[in-house]
Structure formats: structure tokens, C-alpha cells
Amino acid sequence: MIAVLCSIFSGVTIVLSRQINGYFTKNTSASTSTFMNYFTGLVSSIIIFIFYGISLTPHMRIETFTTNPMILFGGAISVINVFILNILVLRVPPVALTLTTFITQILSGMLFDYLFYGLFSPRKLLGICIVIAGLIISQMPAKKPMYSTMTPKKSK
């Protein structure tokens, strides 16, 4: 149950963060908004780290980053992702942007799993196809009925 609540809270904070970043982008620029996003995250992380101490990360060592530079690549991808989302949030409806972000995360995860580990899941591919179909259908305009069952009243 805690995992479900954490997932819901995470989703809500991501959408709220995106909307706040969009508002900030509208009033400044996408690069300023992206910088402030990461600056706020850095300050918050430092405060949490100081408050809770080193006990949160006993397994973390600097050698981990020097022997596996792909870990640092994730940060670069994250900056690009936030920058692009800060631009798109003003142009794309929230539901479409959330679903598109979800789709790209699943597809890129599937691609990385296949490239680095040789794993492929037909079920995940089918699921993402269903989500894509739902996104396309939800973006289609509603058709007007060919005839109306209600006739307008005639005024005398």
C-alpha cells in the first residue's frame, strides 16, 4: 500500500512541478526555469542530506562514478528532458503531455533493456501500443451528430 501511495504522490508532484516550471518558463525563459529547477533540487537535497546524515548513502563511493560514467549520462539526459518539457508544457495539454512522457519513458526503457541487457518484453510493447492508441483516440475531436433529436421551438 505504501508503494502505491508513493507512486501516486510521485505522479502528482511531477505534474505539479511541470506546471510550475511552465508558469516560470512563461515569465522568464526555458533555460532559466530549467536552471532554477535543478538549483532548487540541489539545495533541497543538501538540506535533506545534512538533516539525515551520511547513513542514507553508506554504499555510495566516488569510485562508482569513475568506473561507470553512464551514471553521469543520466543527469545529462534529465537536464535535456526538463528543458524540453519546460518548452512543451505551454503548448501541449497536460493529459497529452503526461501520456507522451509516460510513453517515451517506457519506450526508452525498453530500448535500453534491449541494447544493454538483450531483454525484450512483448507484453510491455503491447501495453505501450494500447496507451498510444488511447492517446490518439483521446485527441480526436468529437463528431457532431448528423441529425438532432431536438427541434428548435418556433417563436410566434
From TrEMBL:
InterPro entries: EmrE-like, YdcZ
Signal peptide, first to last residue: none
Pfam families on file: DMT_YdcZ (PF04657)
Highest rank taxon of the organism: Bacteria
Keywords: Membrane, Transmembrane, Transmembrane helix
Keyword Glycosyltransferase tagged: no
Entry coiled-coil feature ranges: none
GO cellular component terms listed in the entry, alphabetical order: plasma membrane
Transmembrane stretches, start-end: 38-58, 70-89, 95-116, 125-142
Protein known as: Membrane protein
Phylogenetic placement of the source organism: Bacteria, Bacillati, Bacillota, Erysipelotrichia, Erysipelotrichales
